[in-house]
Specification:
This protein is about 80% helix and about 0% strand. It is mostly helical. The relative contact order is 0.04.
């Protein structure tokens, strides 16, 4: 074997090692990203549950006010002043 073949084999092995290490690092980064997205999803789910819990009493109060407005009809307002 001449020097050029040995150098090429050495470079191919070196690049293969670097690509393997890079692949492992990408795997760890994606795994951490998945953990972060799962945590973010649980936070959003908690916020959605809180919003639903707040929505129920507000909706009930709104229905009550609407019902009361239908029962107690206010006196119609005039658009003009009454002249003496």
């Amino acid at each position: 074997m001449d020097f050029l073949q040995i150098a090429l084999i050495f470079l191919i092995l070196l690049l293969s090692i670097f690509l393997g290490i890079t692949g492992i690092q990408v795997f760890f980064i994606l795994r951490d990203l998945k953990k972060a997205l799962d945590k973010f999803n649980s936070i959003l789910q908690t916020g959605e549950n809180i919003a639903e819990d707040i929505e129920r009493p507000v909706s009930a109060a709104s229905n009550l006010v609407t019902t009361l407005k239908k029962i107690i009809k206010p006196k119609p307002k005039r658009f003009y002043k009454k002249v003496l």
